[in-house]
Amino acid sequence: MAFRIGVDGGGTKTECVLVDAGGVVLARHTAPGCSPSHAGPEKARAILGEALRDLLSQGPRGPVEQTLLCMAGNPAFWRETASSLQGFGRVETAADHLPVLELATGGGPGLVLHAGTGSFVAARGPDGKVHYAGGLGWRFGDPASGYELGRRGAARALLELQGWAKRTALAEALAAHTGVPDYTTNSRILNTHAEANSKIASFAPRLVELAESGCEPARQVLLDSIGGLAAIADSVLARVFSKGSPPLPCGVSGILLTRPAVFALVAEEAAARAWPVILEPVIEPPIEGVLRLLLKPPGSPL
Description:
Elements: E1 3-9, E2 13-19, E3 25-32, H1 36-39, H2 41-58, E4 64-71, H3 75-84, E5 90-95, H4 97-105, E6 110-115, E7 119-124, E8 130-134, H5 146-162, H6 169-178, H7 183-192, H8 196-201, H9 204-212, H10 216-240, E9 248-253, H11 260-272, E10 277-282, H12 286-294
Parallel strand pairs: 1-4, 4-5, 6-9, 9-10
Antiparallel strand pairs: 1-2, 2-3, 6-7, 7-8
């Protein structure tokens, strides 16, 4: 019996699945994130290699006929990495936006708004061509991503700690998050700490909780950030899809965006911008989209 392997490699985690020819899942494995942008090229390769070996150790023995890598980071890096893998059959690479797009549209025309470690808008046009927008990385925005939400929330909280904005629960939440109460120490930690990026990104869930509980500054930060992602979606809808076309499936993906209160804000934004879409949360994890892609008939376009 020959097996297939699917991998979803992101900045936060690397998920792998082993299936038989009929699509029955035989083993799953989760490893640390392997995006070369975050882990570095050598560590990214090492994480992937170890994850693949650990996956195979959990399943039955047999030849692997195909491996599909859906990876975050430089496509050329992953193509080179794929060419060096031995014993994994025909190794193909694809961008990490394809699995969530597959989950959102089932391979047909439509789009998905995704926000996790980074954010992007992906669409499949009526001609089957896939389009990708955003995903510029944390340095340049990635609206509604974990880092960008944490950055915006922390910036507002720092102004409150500084005394230039009305003090709210946002300032108290940041002080609890960092473990220090004053503006000066918080500013130093968030600007110079070796793990500053992780510290900022991990503030995002607390920001969302505050927005859900009625903290107005937190809610405004969330709205502004969602608006940035929606603006990218505006451009995609205008360029890829014709006016007057039937409503399109539009998925909303990511652990924060699919929370009911946050999804409601995305829906409000979509309605205000008159998007011709049917909005749905994408609850399944990206690895399930990888599995769907992996089981497509040979020769089918991804």
